[in-house]
Amino acid sequence: MKNTRILSLVMALMMVFSMTLCNVAAAEDATTVVRVGIDADVSSISPFGPMDGGRAYVYQAIYEYMAQRVAFGASWDAMDLVCAKSITQVDDVTYDIEMYDYISDSAGNHITAADYVWAAYAMKESGNYPKMFVLDTIEATGDYSVRLKITDNGLGNLEWLLSMVPIISQSAYEASADKMVNNPITTAAYQVETFVNGSEVVLVKAENYWQTDESVRYVWSKQNVDRIEMKIIMDATQMSVALKTNEIDMAELITPAVLGDFYVDGQATEGWIVDAQPATMVHSVVFNCSADSECNNLALRQAIGYAIDNETIMQFATSGYGKVLNAFANDCASDYIDAWNERDYFGQDLDKAKALLAESGFDTSQHLKMLVVHSDEYERVAQVIQAQLLEIGIIVDLNVVDGALQDTEYSISTAWDFGFAARGCDDYCTFPWMLLFNANGFSSGLNINLINDPTLQELYMACSSPDTHSEETVAAFEQYLEDQAYGYGLYTGMRYCVANSAVCTALDMREGGEIKIGGCTYVWND
Fold first, then answer.
1. Do residues 321 and 334 both lie within one domain?
2. How far apart are CA 232 and CA 242, in angstroms?
3. What 3-state DSSP class applies to 189?
4. Residue numbers of the chain with a pLDDT score lower than 50
5. Of 250, 304, 343, 457, which sits with the fewest C-beta atoms within 10 Å of its C-beta?
6. For residue 373, with 0-12 CB atoms within 10 Å meaning exposed, 13-18 middle and 19 or more buried, which class applies?
7. 19 exposed, middle or buried (CB, 10 Å; 0-12, 13-18, 19+)?
8. Dihedral (C-alpha) 209, 213, 215, 220: value to the nearest 10 degrees?
9. Chain CA centroid to CA 41, Å
10. What pLDDT is recorded for position 512?
11. Is 128 contained in some domain?
């Protein structure tokens, strides 16, 4: 009997010990996962695919670059180095870049200067990035060094190139059957496991990440989670429900319309973490001034400007958590002119709008076409503008397109008469101006208005050059833009990112931008 009891005790202890070992093994094998909601479709994750709202959320996690900005307006010598070991200025437009000599991608392909030279030219030839006009020449000067020349030393030109040309292997790209459309092989700390257009992007931690020196790792290379599941949820209410039902752990953007569930009186409610940042976007109207559009008529453009109630649009788009713009600029820009806040600017004046419409001679039996990118917020704004213009007798048809197609649609003179455009103003007022109004940035030689106005171009060159950039040149460009009614600012908002505090204890945010998901603090590494 005694022996039986001893045997039973030994067996029980062995079972407990075995279960403990199993639990330890399970803990050691556990994969940490965070699920993130994003509010825009990701049309492309290929290395040189077009930029859109969804890609903006993921491209810095999927690809690495020579250097990255960590603050608004940071010059090239204040950027975080990533694949560049050093950057040296030779003259105003020439820079020498030394790369690390041990960079490799997730498949073990060694990265050299030749790969970077190829990638820069391939990106320019893709046609998806009009701003690649700033690349003049690039050549390898050694196995791990290049000389880069830009077309001009305009504000932000070099910094943009350094932070946008992806570091990938030419041989891996050319060996890829679909040219890395679905499974890019990159040097980044996270690799794409799954990409389903319109549904999700799944990233997994790269176990063989090349940069093992923690002291020089930059912010996007932190690996505080093993698996990142990014789910595309474009409806604001569904995003809120997904958070509350634990379908997702954090949301890249919660709109003000549903913010009250997570954020009240400037404070996160119990169980949630909220990061609030001023948005950098300039939401605006731009006009097709080509001969194919009725909006080549200045009086008609002005009539539209005075028919639109910016305040109502801002309230409708941001639930009051935004502000009306008083220039084609965002006051987050380092060169924003405070005096703009006190001036008269476009805003609803129906009597003036009707008088200008009559002056224009526009036949109101004709319909105008408004181009808008597919987005819950943008389409709602477009519908408000549509209703406001109807008040003065202008009938508007909406041309709603996916983000990946907007550049193509804007280039077709018969596809639109005016458009609702959104561009970031992260560093300088000149940045959205460059993307929209700099004719030199378009292969056609025509700007977003489908014209090349020599006066506008001259004013742009003056305000964008470091040698002549000043309050006077910035003001002169913006005033001419207003006088010609080529476009005008409507509103900007706030960005609210929300996380479940049972999963994430601290958000790591890019200034004015998205969550650095791998850099956040989670309950498992707090």
1. yes
2. 11
3. coil
4. 1-28
5. 343
6. buried
7. exposed
8. -10
9. 12
10. 66
11. no
Amino acid at 437: F
Could you tell me how many residues make up the chain?
526
Residue 158 CA to residue 484 CA, distance in Å, equals: 30
Predicted local distance difference test score (pLDDT) of residue 72: 72
Give pLDDT, residue 243.
98
Q: Which of 262, 203, 217, 318 is nearest to 507 (CA)?
A: 262
What single DSSP character describes residue 194?
Answer: E
> Are 251 and 400 in the same domain?
no
Q: Could you tell me whether strands 80-81 and 418-424 are parallel, antiparallel, or unpaired per DSSP bridges?
A: unpaired
| Sequence-ordered list of residues with C-beta below 8 angstroms from that of 303, at least 6 positions apart, any chain | 353, 354, 356, 357, 359, 360, 362, 392, 394
Residues 371 and 223 in one domain: no
Please, what's the b/e burial string for 399-423 (b: 16 or more CB within 10 A of its CB; e: otherwise)?
bebbbbebbebbeebebbbbbbbbb
- Nearby residues of 474 by Cβ (< 8 Å), 6 or more positions away: 335, 337, 429, 430, 463
Does residue 254 sit within a domain?
yes
Is residue 442 domain-shared with residue 315, that is, in the same domain? Answer: yes
Report angle CA 445, 448, 449 to the nearest 5 degrees: 95
Residue 83 lies in a domain: no
Q: Do 266 and 289 have their domain in common?
A: no
If one counts the domains in the chain, the total is 2
Q: Which residue has the tokens 């634990």?
A: 246
Strand 521-522 and strand 418-424: the pairing is: unpaired
Compute the distance between CA of residue 398 and CA of residue 416 in angstroms, rounded to an integer: 9
Residue 28 to residue 226: CA distance in whole angstroms: 13
Kindly report the three-state secondary structure assignment for every residue of 445-514. CCCCCCCCCHHHHHHHHHHHCCCCCCHHHHHHHHHHHHHHCCEEEEEECEEEEEEECCCEEECCECCCCC
Record the tokens describing residue 157, joined without a space.
Answer: 């030109």
Taking alpha carbons only, the member of 335, 295, 287 closest to residue 436 is 287
pLDDT on residue 294: 98
Task: Classify each residue of 278-313 as buried b or exposed e, where b means 16 or more C-beta atoms within 10 Å of its C-beta.
Answer: bbbbbbbbbbbbbeebbbbbbbbbbbbbbbbbbebb
Residue 367 lies in a domain: yes
- What pLDDT does residue 22 have? 36
- Angle, helix 430-437 to helix 471-484, in steps of 10 degrees: 40
Q: Which residue, among 424, 421, 430, 425, has the nearest Cα to 448 in the 3D structure? A: 421
Question: CA 478, CA 484: separation in Å to the nearest integer?
Answer: 10
Dist CA 487 CA 287 (whole Å): 6
CATH code of 45's domain: 3.40.190.10
268 and 342, same domain (yes or no): no
- The domain that holds 333 is classified in CATH as 3.10.105.10
Q: Which domain holds residue 359?
A: 281-492
Instruction: Kindly state whether residues 268 and 315 are assigned to the same domain.
Output: no
- 303 with 438, same domain: the answer is yes
Q: What is the pLDDT of residue 8?
A: 46
